[in-house]
What we know:
Strand order of the largest sheet: 7-6-12-13-14-11-15
Mean pLDDT: 96
Low-confidence stretches: none
Domain UDP-galactopyranose mutase C-terminal: 146-347
InterPro entries: UDP-GALP_mutase, UDP-GalPyranose_mutase_C
Number of helices: 12
Distance between the termini: 24 Å
Bound molecules: dihydroflavine-adenine dinucleotide
Strand content: 15-25%
Pfam family, one: NAD_binding_8
Cofactor: FAD
Largest sheet: 7 strands, mixed
Family: Belongs to the UDP-galactopyranose/dTDP-fucopyranose mutase family.
Amino acid sequence: MYDYLIVGAGLFGSVFAYEARLRGKHCLVIDKRAHIGGNVYTEPIEGINVHKYGAHIFHTNSKAIWDYVNQFVEFNRYTNAPVANYKGELYNLPFNMNTFNKLWGVITPDEAKQKIGEQRAEAGVSEPKNLEEQAISLVGTDIYEKLVKGYTEKQWGRSARDLPAFIIKRLPVRFTYDNNYFNDQYQGIPKGGYNVIVDKMLEGTEVRLQVDFFEQREELVKSAKKIVFTGMIDQYYDYRYGVLEYRSLQFETKVLSQTDNYQGNAVVNYTDRETPYTRVIEHKHFEFGTQAGTVITEEYPAEWKPGLEPYYPINDEKNNKIYKQYKALADQESDVIFGGRLGGYKYYDMHQVIAEALTAVERELGK
Ligand code: FDA
């Protein structure tokens, strides 16, 4: 009899399994995919670690979480500095003095602030009723038109005027010449890829791949005292209160052997409405690769329907209300722990999901 059946070998499940093993517990980890790691999995193609489920850059402000992941692997000095391509014009992201200089020729922060202020005043939005008005009220029309509108409309599959204002609470604007996307103190990519971390976490724990919990539910439940469930919470309860919605993505990966450097940057966002993908990732740049060829992935946003990968929970009023009902059931369970992005119906960055798993382990098994 296992102490824990852990459904899902993503970061939540792997951290839980590792910590439980350290505390002498006997776990079985299952995953319906053919590999461990969940969405942080990287697949080696032509000697390049390809981020199979989208670009993953580790960043955190927590020294404790940084130390935690560094016990498994050393991180490189990668700093995320995406570039936006708007119809062939290139701009630095996040919006900063380099962006403003390119857009308007301004040199000083005061000039940039004045320009944004003028555009906001001209638009005259006092109470934003939709995403378009919200974005213009925050950063003015030029940035909105060239860098926000098309990207956001592709991401959500509808017009910015039909999207609620709350999706954009703030748009980070930085009045320094600093292209570092994140403000966090610690940032990098694990040397050798994320698999190194997850492999070490699951070393010594029994793992069964290509096993879907729902296809063998009865036997699996009987095999363990408790369950840690990181799949979709609505599916666990047989969708009795309805289906929780997501946005999905499709990835098109291409091996390019004619060039060793396709776009000169790991992440390029295509911010016009016409280009069907939102981003192109050139994976080798995450690890300063020097391979002869290169591998790129185009990222296409997609409407989610059952059967597709659920990536981004749509935390609007309707879905949050449904989730609350599932959460109430989950809170009554004494032998099931729900965790991770699907179990909690919440977007988590990697450092957040690791912190959440560590808290769950401590609550369950002590420090
Ligand atoms: P995850 O989804 O990784 O793991 C759950 C596992 O459960 C999966 O392997 C799944 O197959 C398995 N499973 C589900 N149902 C099952 C069933 N019925 N039976 C068996 N197995 C089942 N974060 C960050 O910090 N920096 C970044 O740059 C990015 N970038 C990024 C890009 C994109 C496109 C996305 C979608 C997400 C990010 N993230 C990120 C977030 C990051 O991916 C996330 O924090 C972790 O992967 C979450 O780990 P979980 O364990 O919660 O889920």
